[in-house]
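Anyone able to model this chain together with NAI?
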Amino acid sequence: MANPSLLILPGDGIGPEVMAEVRKIIDWFGAKRGLVFDVSEDLVGGAAYDVHGVPLSDETMAKAQEADAVLLGAVGGPKYDKLDFSVKPERGLLRLRKEMDLFSNLRPAQCFDALADFSSLKKDIIAGLDIMIVRELTSGVYFGEPRGIFTEGNERVGINTQRYTESEIARVARSAFELARRRGNKVCSMEKANVMESGILWREVVQEVHDKEYPDVELSHMYADNGAMQLVRWPKQFDVIVTDNLFGDVLSDCAAMLTGSLGMLPSASLGAPMANGRPKALYEPVHGSAPDIAGQGKANPIACVLSFAMALRYSFDQGNDADRLEKAVEKVLADGVRTADLMQNAGETPVSTSQMGDAIIAALDASL
Ligand code: NAI
Ligand code: MG
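re: yes, here you go
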């Protein structure tokens, strides 16, 4: 059987720097664990604009549609700020998400014990936290019609429309239940069914999908405003949270920041299953291209490394090796290895991007 394929799009700024460390780790899994990927690399964002005059070429788009998973670094930078909106680096990323129809956005909030002091919450509330927010990404109020700014009488009115079809809710609910089965087997669905009809439908459809297809998973429902309170009060009560595009945008940023640095946060965006049963998938760190530190070897590669761990788990069914990689990251942090963004005390010496990658490889070696 052919090896699974992985399309790598390093992008701009620190994207190529953090991706270089992930390449070392991919090679390690090939050499030491027999997990060989068919890796190809291509351009996205400003890097693609420089060569093709567009932030994502049709050829690259076609490769992304074929790949078993896409791993992206980051796009954008001051050099491209004045470009026309239609060719801005971010449009490359948006095109990928749209044409791959990636409706399920996975944002973990995971706290490594060694970094528990980084949180704005008390250590015992946050230590050991491991939750996953599933945000619907392709519908809802960011896309619903009618929208716009209109004039009514003698004043302006701004309009957006929250709109969800049954099938849009059902598919993201399935995605959350599937994830829960691989984790703590618990889903909490959040909406505002008390004040929004789309929320009433959301609650009904999630419950129906549960009862018909996933009765083994524990399901609860919560109003999203209460959900926000519960997230900062006692986040460990949750396993998987599933919610709409707008609430998910806010709740996932809130949950992610419970755990500390932007340089630590991975993400995945999943679509419908392909012919081989794997979901269409794009994995990327939450952070951007960090022009302020680009080219200096200062970037923390962990967000990108953990994005690859998510690919191992959710695209390639290698949960044990995903655990192995996450444990290696945990060990390196417990040993006090820190890039500059993770420094708390003056006088500590940070490691470089590649030293962090090497430390993770050493921890992987020690795991064999
Ligand atoms: P950013 O995430 O690039 O940087 C924000 C701050 O966090 C900076 O001080 C940066 O140095 C730091 N930081 C980010 N990632 C880090 C890492 N791995 N290690 C250490 N420090 C890290 O967000 P910003 O500054 O708002 O945007 C910069 C550029 O990136 C813009 O062109 C923006 O459009 C683009 N961007 C791209 C994203 C993507 O590719 N998904 C997401 C967000 C922004
Ligand atoms: Mg946001």
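DSSP finds twelve helices and twelve strands in the chain.
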